[in-house]
Specification:
Largest sheet: 7 strands, mixed
Helix content: 25-40%
Radius of gyration: 14 Å
Strand content: 15-25%
Order of helices and strands: EHEEEEEHHEHEHEEEH
CATH class: Alpha Beta
Number of helices: 6
Number of domains: 1
CATH topology: Rossmann fold
Structural class: alpha/beta
């Protein structure tokens, strides 16, 4: 299991895109990674856009991002809420400074925009936030998955197989 010693933060908030949270979490767990669902509150059940629940293991205030090897930001409407938490922005900045893998899909780019880490980066996202990404200084491309150093980005659920494979490959090498 190539990811057996890796710890990953998976951010969760109401109205996450169900597949964009669960597909990466389960795939990384299959490869041996320890994935913690982290939300504003510990042990809280958050409900995805399509009704799939996800229970947080820890609250934002309970963890130290330095103890983790990577972070995943799901899409849906959750990113618009997640980017309002100072702790989330700090987690992303910590991962960015340490060049640890940051995975973002669909609307998750909003969190990276709020963390101010996209200047000069090549990324993708749902086309709906293309302007937001470019206004943050990124070069946006319409591809299933884009890797720029430690930032791995993807567009939407049909791209999940490619996205999670690339994310796991980057995490394994890190």
């Amino acid at each position: 299991m190539r990811l057996k010693d890796k710890k990953v933060i998976a951010l969760v908030e109401e109205e996450f895109e169900d597949l964009e949270l669960w597909y990466p979490v389960l795939r990384l767990q299959e490869e041996g990674a320890e994935v913690h669902l982290i939300g504003k509150e510990a042990n809280k059940k958050y409900i995805g856009k399509y009704g799939v629940p996800a229970e947080s293991k820890f609250a934002f205030k309970d963890i130290n991002a330095d103890d983790y090897d990577a972070i995943l930001v799901p899409g849906g409407w959750a990113p618009d809420k997640l980017r309002r938490y100072d702790e989330v922005i700090e987690f992303v900045k910590v991962m960015d400074r340490a060049k640890k893998p940051i995975g973002q899909i669909c609307h998750a780019g909003w969190v990276l925009i709020s963390a101010n880490i996209l200047q000069g980066k090549k990324v993708t996202s749902t086309p709906g936030i293309k302007d937001d990404m470019t206004n943050a200084g990124a070069t946006w491309v319409n591809e299933p998955v884009v890797t720029d150093g430690h930032i791995i980005s993807s567009r939407r659920p049909p791209d999940l197989p490619q996205y999670v494979k690339v994310f796991a490959d980057v995490l394994a090498q890190n």
